[in-house]
Write a structure and sequence with these properties.
- The chain is mostly helical.
- It has a domain of 37 residues.
- It contains five helices and no strands.
- It comes from Amycolatopsis regifaucium.
- Keywords: Membrane, Transmembrane, Transmembrane helix.
- This is Septum formation initiator.
Length: 180
């Protein structure tokens, strides 16, 4: 019997373990230990994080509410710092696009005027323009002007304009109210 007791202690004392029954129990122990260890580690980490946070609060001398307020102020300051240049950038971008559009219109106008200048470099074109616009005639020519009825300007007294009544506006109003 003494041998049996020694054999058992030898088996249980080994690092690798022995026997079929002890092998079946070991994985269960490892799982339990692992789950327990994980829970303990999680608790430990949480408590360390809380201690660190409270340590930071103690160092800064502020509560979490005050820290949140400081963070909010910093974020607002950054937003205002970015907002003004961004607004300026966007307004300048729109102005640049407007100026580019104006520039393209002016370039078209310049091209059109240069074409007109090329047309007027011909003496025959200048003569035709002077006859049309100013009614010029060459010496020895007889000018004829055809005037259509629609072209006549109406004379002042023809259209039956009403005479301008004398007196100021308030006198006219009083006369209308008074019935006279």
């Amino acid at each position: 019997m003494a041998d049996r007791g020694r054999a058992r202690t030898r088996r249980s004392g080994r690092a690798g373990g022995g026997g079929g029954s002890s092998r079946g129990r070991r994985p269960e122990r490892a799982r339990r230990t692992t789950t327990t260890e994980v829970r303990a580690r999680t608790r430990l980490r949480r408590s360390l994080a809380a201690k660190r946070a409270s340590g930071a609060a103690k160092v800064l001398g502020m509560s979490t509410t005050r820290r949140a307020a400081v963070v909010a102020i910093v974020v607002c300051a950054l937003a205002f710092t970015i907002a003004v240049p961004l607004r300026t950038y966007l307004s300048q971008k729109s102005e640049v696009s407007e100026q580019q559009q104006l520039q393209s219109e002016l370039q078209r106008s310049v091209a059109q005027l240069e074409g007109r200048k090329a047309e007027l470099s011909d003496p025959a074109q200048i003569e035709a323009e002077a006859r049309k616009r100013f009614g010029f005639v060459k010496p020895g020519e007889t000018p004829y002007i055809v005037q259509l009825p629609e072209d006549k300007a109406p004379e002042q007294g023809e259209q039956g304009q009403q005479p301008v009544p004398a007196g100021s506006w308030y006198e006219k109003l009083w006369d209308q109210v008074a019935g006279g």
